Amino acid sequence: MTDPPTLTRATLREGVRALAERDPGLAAIVAAHGPPPLWARPQGFATLVRIVLEQQVSLASAGATWAKLEARLGAVTPAGFLTLDDATLRACGFSRQKTAYVRALAADLESGRLD
Fold first, then answer.
1. Distinct helix (H) and strand (E) counts, the chain
2. How much is the pTM?
């Protein structure tokens, strides 16, 4: 089995082109707005937390939750996250499900189960 290609601006454009050939609705969006940007983010726990927060909500809402979490913790680390109880995370804007996801991720990183 071969490794998938590295995601670059060129491979993203090629993937979008291939999908747009198969989906007229996507083709119309790409024609009107161009391909999506390739967002470069640093590796690590904090980036994964931000990605979880951005799911199924507006980026503004996710950003507000992130800002409250960062104000509470300073650096967002697995160990720091695990010190926060459910009520504190709810006050920051975390849903019950996102709390469970991030808590499991933090615990797996802290235990060494995930690198």
1. 7, 0
2. 0.74
